[in-house]
Amino acid sequence: MRPSFDEMQATPTTVRPHYKTYDQWLARQPRDDMQARREEAEMIFRRVGITFAVYGDKDSGEGTERLIPFDLIPRVIPSHEWREMEKGLRQRVTALNRFIHDIYHGQEILKAGIVPREQIQNNAQFRPEMMGVDVPQDVYSHIAGIDIVRAAQPDGSGTYYVLEDNLRVPSGVSYMLENRKMMMRLFPELFAQHRVAPVAHYPDLLLETLRSVAPRQVADPTVVVLTPGMYNSAYFEHAFLAQQMGVELVEGQDLFVKDRTVFMRTTQGPKRVDVIYRRLDDDFLDPQVFRSDSTLGCAGLVDAYKAGNVTLSNAIGTGIADDKSIYPYVPKMVEFYLGEKPILHNVPTHLCREKDDLAYVLAHLDELVVKEVHGAGGYGMLVGPAATKAEIEDFRAHLVANPSNYIAQPTLSLSTCPTFVDSGIAPRHIDLRPFVLSGTEVQMVPGGLTRVALKEGSLVVNSSQGGGTKDTWVLED
After folding, report:
1. Domain closes at, from 411, 434, 459
2. Region at 116 (left for phi over 0; alpha for psi -120 to 50; beta for the rest)
3. What is the distance between the alpha carbons of residues 137 and 215, in angstroms, rounded to a whole number?
4. Using an 8 Å Cβ cutoff, are 442 and 213 in contact?
5. What pTM does this model have?
6. Quick one: DSSP state of residue 236?
7. What secondary structure does DSSP assign to 166-187, as a single string?
8. Which of 15, 33, 350, 442 has its CA 20 to 30 A from that of 100?
9. Which of 44-53, 186-195, 321-330, 400-409 is predicted least confidently?
10. Domain enclosing residue 236, as ranges
């Protein structure tokens, strides 16, 4: 595996230009001062209640509430790199929204033979209930979290790749916002020395996006955030975003449908709801249509949705476009729908349902990362180079039994960023999740959530697997 691209160090003795001022500042900081500020950050995060449920064995249901570790050393991105990434993100999310609309309408991309029809019809995320249903402005994924990694090239440069598209209920934006607030509190002098693009206006952009996709006849739409409840792992974020936008946080029991219109119960009586930013999966939205045992959603919601009387963000059925078995076709979607070459590239991907691909993967399990097509949170995957022989053979059995359930990719050595760990400052692998908002227009705040694998050598950055987060600085010109 090729050595990692270091975000800060161009060579062991030289620093990349956009890190130069920060590096000089960091060299002057006593270790005890940095440790004290880390403890202060942890105390404040604990007091505010910024926690995440970390699940042990996913089958046991056991888990604990804990803080997501916050690292004091920011990930810095120069403006020219961000501008190119932003163009690529706009292009990719626009094409993905066009794809979802097409799948639930004319299915032109299937007729053209670009995406195999069985990949849609046999997909657990395909919702036949959405066929022919029109949504405002043909936008399905209003909030997308696109996971981006950087890998070293033979010439020493680093290339950005899209690792995953999260189009259903992407999480983590609250940590992006709280990380920035914390950095500004702990290190105000750094923000006087750097022109860091702001992110604090994200809740305003989110509310603007949600209001822009309200049903056409509504002049002053009422927006709510729908949460599964306080026991959900991301409940802090649900409450945080509702509070930041100044809208109600509701559970399914707070809503009811009358005359194909959604209302919420208030102390002043029923109030019509026009846009629901829902933070629960399709299956739990409406017991009359999906899971009949769900108590998290609202009976009749889908009927009101199909009637055009309420907007769901994100739309039902968006999961068809963030399924890992569909991911390999996204570059072709960009060309098919937009007539453009993709700006952001995919990681090369083997589809295990294909005979030749499966044979290659089985012969190279110790070199590859193999993932479940519906997996999330770092579960259901094999990182070949880090796995034992027993783990590889166990995974091989699962793969042979159900090859269509898996994809495989080369083990990219994710780029590293200096990180403040117990032993001092050391490189740790990172990724980036920018949040892309699609309504009347496509917009985003500069940067996103940088996740960091805190365990030395680990490539798994997911919070559910013990990863941490960093503030992400996009430097303005």
Report:
1. 411
2. beta
3. 10
4. no
5. 0.92
6. H
7. E-SS---HHHHHHHHHHHHHH-
8. 350
9. 44-53
10. 216-309
